[in-house]
């Protein structure tokens, strides 16, 4: 699945507020619920937190990819965020996170979920992509940089 199919300008959030992992996940859940009213923000939040309890989705280099399968989710949904300051996310390299890509997929999505996670992780493994995204000053710019970076990859 392409990044453009997952992400929308309204779910590209530059400078998302949040002083902790839970607060960031709550703000992401609320943003999703605003764009997809059929998805309850509490349910989204609880599913993301439940996944984090299994192990941190902080993959290192200041990046986290929180994700979950979600009842009632009809198609994969992505949310791209930057945050300042960086937040402790229990990442594998113990570095705080300032770049997040949240992924929600339908409950019965198995292989597509794994494939999409791998594509996102590969994109964020490129330091040039991470640097560009961190330089974004608006949500529209963040969205455009992400889509262009994915298309060039």
From TrEMBL:
Q: What is this protein called?
A: PTS IIA-like nitrogen regulatory protein PtsN
Q: Which InterPro entries match?
A: PTrfase/Anion_transptr (IPR016152), PTS_EIIA_type-2_dom (IPR002178), PTS_Nitro_regul (IPR006320), PTS_SugarTrans_NitroReg (IPR051541)
Q: Which residues form the PTS EIIA type-2 domain?
A: 5-149
Q: Per its UniProt entry, which superkingdom is the organism in?
A: Bacteria
PANTHER family membership? NITROGEN REGULATORY PROTEIN, PTS SYSTEM FRUCTOSE-LIKE EIIA COMPONENT-RELATED
Q: Which SUPFAM superfamilies would you find in this protein's record?
A: Phoshotransferase/anion transport protein (SSF55804)
């Amino acid at each position: 699945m392409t990044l453009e199919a997952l992400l929308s300008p309204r779910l590209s959030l530059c400078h998302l507020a949040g002083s902790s992992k839970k607060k960031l996940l709550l703000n992401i859940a609320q943003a999703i619920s605003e764009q997809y009213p059929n998805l309850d923000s509490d349910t989204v939040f609880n599913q993301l937190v439940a996944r984090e309890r299994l192990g941190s989705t902080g993959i290192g280099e200041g990046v986290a990819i929180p994700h979950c399968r979600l009842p009632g989710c009809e198609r994969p949904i992505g949310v791209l965020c930057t945050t300042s300051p960086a937040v402790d996310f229990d990442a594998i390299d113990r570095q705080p996170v300032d770049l997040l890509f949240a992924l929600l997929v339908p409950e019965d999505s198995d292989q597509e979920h794994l494939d999409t996670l791998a594509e996102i992780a590969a994109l964020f493994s490129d330091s040039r992509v991470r640097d560009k995204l961190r330089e974004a000053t608006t949500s529209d710019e963040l969205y455009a940089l992400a889509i262009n970076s994915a298309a060039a990859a």
